[in-house]
Write a structure and sequence with these properties.
The chain has a domain of 88 residues: Serine Threonine Protein Phosphatase 5, Tetratricopeptide repeat (Alpha Horseshoe), CATH 1.25.40. Helix 2 runs antiparallel to helix 3, helix 3 packs antiparallel against helix 4 and helix 4 packs parallel to helix 6. The protein is mainly alpha-helical. It is 75% helix and 0% strand.
C-alpha cells in the first residue's frame, strides 16, 4: 500500500469519525441543549449561593464582633471613673445578660455560618454567667451535639463546669472522661484531665487527683503534663531556685 493510499484511508477514517460525531450530535441535539442549560443553571446557582453565603458570613462576623465587644466590656462600680464613651456594666451578670441577647440574635439569624454556630456556644456561656442554668444547659447540649467536633468539645467542657456548679459532679466526671477519650484541637485530653483532677481535689479526694496527675505527667509532654508534675511536686512556699 503506497503512501498516497494510506493518507487517503486515514483521511476517510477521519471523515467517517467526524461524520459519525456530527450525526450523533444532530440526533441528540435536543438532549445536549437541555443538559447544557441545566449545567449552566446549576453553575449559576452555585455561584449565587457562594456569593450569598459569603455576604451572610461577613454580616455574621460583624454581628458576632459586636456581641464580643459587649461581652468583653469592663465592669465598673458606680461612681468609678472610666474613659469617655467606654461602655461599662455594674456587674458581670448584667454584662452577660446584655451579651447573651446579642449572641442569640447572631445564632438565630446566621446559624448556618461559623460565627452563628460560635455565637450559640457563647450564648450558653453567658447564660451560665447570668445565672440562667436551665437555658445554659439546653443551649450547650445543642452545641455539644454539633458535627463540629471542636465546638462540641468546648460545649461539653462548659457543660461539665455547669454540672460542677450545680452539684452534679458525677455528670461532670462522665463528660471529662468522654472528652479525654475523644480529644480535639480545641480541647486536648490534658485539659479535660486537669479539670477532672481539680474536681477530685474539690471533693477532698486527693488520692484520685494524684492518680490523674501521675498518668498525665507520664503521657502528656506538653503544658498539661508540666502542670501535673508541679501538682505532684509543689515547690514549697518561699523556696527559691537552687544554686
Amino acid at each position: 500500500m503506497d503512501q498516497q493510499t494510506r493518507q487517503a484511508l486515514k483521511h476517510d477514517q477521519f471523515v467517517d469519525t467526524t461524520q459519525h460525531g456530527i450525526e450523533w450530535a444532530e440526533k441528540h441535539r435536543r438532549n445536549l441543549i437541555v443538559w447544557g442549560a441545566i449545567v449552566v443553571v446549576l453553575l449559576l446557582v452555585a455561584v449565587l449561593s457562594a456569593v450569598v453565603y459569603s455576604h451572610r458570613s461577613e454580616q455574621a462576623d460583624n454581628a458576632f464582633g459586636n456581641a464580643m465587644q459587649i461581652y468583653q466590656a469592663p465592669v465598673a462600680a458606680a461612681g468609678q471613673q472610666v474613659p469617655p464613651g467606654m461602655k461599662t456594666f455594674p456587674s458581670a451578670a448584667e454584662r452577660a445578660k446584655a451579651a447573651n441577647q446579642l449572641f442569640l440574635q447572631v445564632a438565630d439569624q446566621y446559624g448556618m455560618t461559623s460565627s452563628g454556630r460560635l455565637a450559640r456556644y457563647f450564648a450558653g456561656l453567658t447564660y451560665i454567667e447570668a445565672g440562667q442554668n436551665a437555658s445554659a444547659e439546653s443551649t450547650l447540649k445543642q452545641v455539644a451535639s454539633s458535627w463540629n467536633s471542636d465546638l462540641a468539645s468546648l460545649a461539653k467542657l462548659g457543660l461539665a463546669q455547669l454540672y460542677r456548679q450545680t452539684g452534679r459532679d458525677s455528670q461532670a466526671i462522665d463528660l471529662y472522661n468522654e472528652i479525654s477519650a475523644h480529644p480535639t484541637t480545641a480541647v486536648p485530653a490534658g485539659t479535660a484531665q486537669l479539670q477532672l483532677a481539680d474536681l477530685y481535689e474539690a471533693e477532698n479526694k486527693p488520692e484520685l487527683a494524684k492518680k490523674v496527675y501521675a498518668t498525665l505527667k507520664d503521657k502528656d509532654k506538653g503544658a498539661a503534663g508540666t502542670i501535673a508534675a508541679q501538682k505532684l511536686n509543689p515547690t514549697p512556699a518561699g523556696a527559691g531556685p537552687g544554686l
